[in-house]
Amino acid sequence: MNLQEDIQSIKRYVVRLEEQGKTELEILKAIYKWGTQAVIAEVLNINIRRLKYLSKKYGLKKNDSSRITRRCTHCGEEQSLSNFDVVYEKGKLRNKRVCYACQRDYYRTKYMHRVIVENWEKEQIKREINIKEYELEVLKELLK
User: Fold this and answer.
1) CA torsion angle for 78, 84, 87, 91 (degrees, to 10)?
2) What confidence score (pLDDT) does residue 20 get?
């Protein structure tokens, strides 16, 4: 029932805009963000495919006001706010300054660096052990 009320209120608004002499583009721009494309097509009595064509023709995008973007401090790309994880900073809920992809790459490189360092340390220890064993063999040969 709530959907029908929305449709009726949008229809009344469209009738008011038509009485004011607004063009099709102005009416579409005014109501495009108010509901789904199916609702808007029903209000305007047009096919959904026609509405999609008109929105593409006029460059209308759905719910731009709800698609809040933020610029990543690492890669510099402007991305949707949903790509930024939510964290607590000083007791308040905040969005991170680095997008999810950059954060994932950071932790991946950090992990790889840690693995490389650990492997390097193991190899270094093996080399030292081999060097000490060789020195022991040389000393044993000298004692004989």
Assistant:
1) 30
2) 92
